[in-house]
Write a structure and sequence with these properties.
Helix Hairpins; 2 domains; BirA Bifunctional Protein, domain 2; single chain; eight-stranded mixed β-sheet
């Protein structure tokens, strides 16, 4: 959520910043609503002051032994008027809050201009794509002989699901375990989190109300949602808290399934494991002092990169342009891994600095020792990395002409010494 004070003091400036994303803020409508709120607030303050003055008059009359029935009648009338005005104010404030929840974050000045992914800027590359002496197969063709079954998943759950068995299931598990161990070594605190959360948790991280169509809701009372990413429960760990300065930074790593309806991805990546309703991910979350958040973004991105380096998978890092940066993010780096079958790089991780956007929704704060006052923290999140897409990249980059798969050396200890899937 954007700072309400900024919206009130510089609405046109905010509109200009959001226009970088291609987002149009109706300045006139927002200003008119704010004028209504101010007018009703002033009326409420006036009535409250009159009621307080009248209460003193009642007390004074009674202390002098006089009849205070007239003052009491006025007090009742003022109380009824105030109740009605406060109800109007509450309704207007709820409308203001709904509008504010729909506003994306303001971008960092370093974010490149552009409307879509074609304007993203490559920052660096690592590794050289392998030149095969044969035509490389895609992960679907490779996996069909190794325990990757989309037909069985389709019978059980429908499209965009997969069943993995045998060596592939073990390789999938090995990838997640390897990533967690690596990140714990990098200073992260491992966390096991709920896979079902209340709507308030999703409002806090920015998925609701904007992206309700992308979520899987679970009926019942109370209502739950399946998590789209472990970012949601991890970031909510600091909800409504005031952290001591010495507690920061907090760094969490969690392996979890993720559930997404992919409502806006109809017809995209329908083949294979690239875009699924259920997938696993190792998520990284940082909670930091505001002045440290951009250094933390570089560190977080480097930790995600360390996974791909250890797996010896060629990749590149992109700085996302204004129009391609996520709703809650002020700046995002995407990591894209090389897929031989497609002869191009595909996203495997996004690392974002949300600055105070999520913290304001969550009321997540720290006590600044310089001011002794609570101030909003900055929150960051990143995939470290998506397990299914890492599996796809390993299958394709480590394939042999006979269809067998060499297990990356760093994963062999997690595979019980198995170094080849065949």
């Amino acid at each position: 959520m954007l700072d309400p004070k900024l919206l009130r003091s510089n609405l046109t400036g905010v509109a200009a910043e959001l226009a970088r994303r291609g987002f149009t803020l109706d300045v006139a409508a927002f200003a008119a609503l704010e004028d209504r709120r101010k007018a009703v607030q002033i009326e409420a303050d006036r009535l409250r002051a009159e009621r307080n003055a009248n209460a003193k008059a009642v007390g004074h009359a009674k202390s002098k032994g006089r009849d205070a029935s007239a003052e009491l009648a006025i007090g009742e009338s003022l109380g009824a008027q105030l109740k009605g005005v406060e109800q109007r104010l509450e309704a207007i404030q709820a409308e203001v809050s709904r509008l504010q929840l729909d506003l994306p974050n303001i971008l960092h000045p370093s974010v490149p201009e552009g409307r879509d992914e074609t304007a993203n800027v490559e920052v660096r590359r690592w590794g050289t794509p392998i030149e095969f002496a044969f035509t490389p197969k895609d992960h679907v063709a490779l996996g069909a002989r190794l325990g990757m079954d989309f037909d069985a998943a389709g019978q059980i759950s429908g499209a965009r699901f997969v069943v993995l068995t045998g060596g592939l299931a073990r390789l999938h598990r090995a990838l997640a375990q390897f990533m967690l161990n690596l990140h714990v070594d990098n200073g992260y605190r491992e966390a096991y989190v709920p896979y079902l959360v209340h709507g308030e948790a999703l409002i806090g991280t920015g998925q609701l109300p904007k992206f309700a169509q992308d979520l899987f809701a679970v009926s019942g009372d109370p209502g739950f949602f399946l998590i789209p990413t472990a970012e949601v429960p991890l970031t909510n760990l600091v909800r409504d808290r005031i952290l001591a300065a010495e507690e920061l930074p907090l760094k969490f790593a969690s392996h979890s399934p993720c559930f997404r309806s992919e409502a806006g991805a109809a017809g995209k990546d329908t083949r294979g494991m690239i875009r699924q309703h259920q997938f696993d991910k190792v998520e990284l979350v940082h909670i930091v002092r505001p002045q440290d958040s951009y250094a933390a973004l570089e560190e977080l991105t480097g930790h995600a990169e360390s996974v791909l380096k250890a797996l010896e998978l060629p990749y590149r890092v992109l700085s996302l342009c204004a129009g391609d940066t996520g709703f809650a993010s002020a700046k995002t780096y995407d990591l894209e891994v090389w897929l031989p079958s497609q002869q191009r790089y595909r996203e495997i991780s996004s690392c974002s600095n949300c600055e105070a956007f999520q913290a304001r929704r969550l009321q997540a704060r720290w006590r600044n020792p310089d001011t002794a006052k609570p101030e909003l923290v900055h929150t960051l999140n990143g995939s470290g990395v998506a397990v299914g897409r890492a599996l796809v990249a390993v299958l394709e980059n480590y394939q042999q002409e006979n269809g067998s798969i060499v297990v990356p050396p760093v994963l062999v200890p997690f595979m019980g010494g198995v170094s080849l899937l065949k």
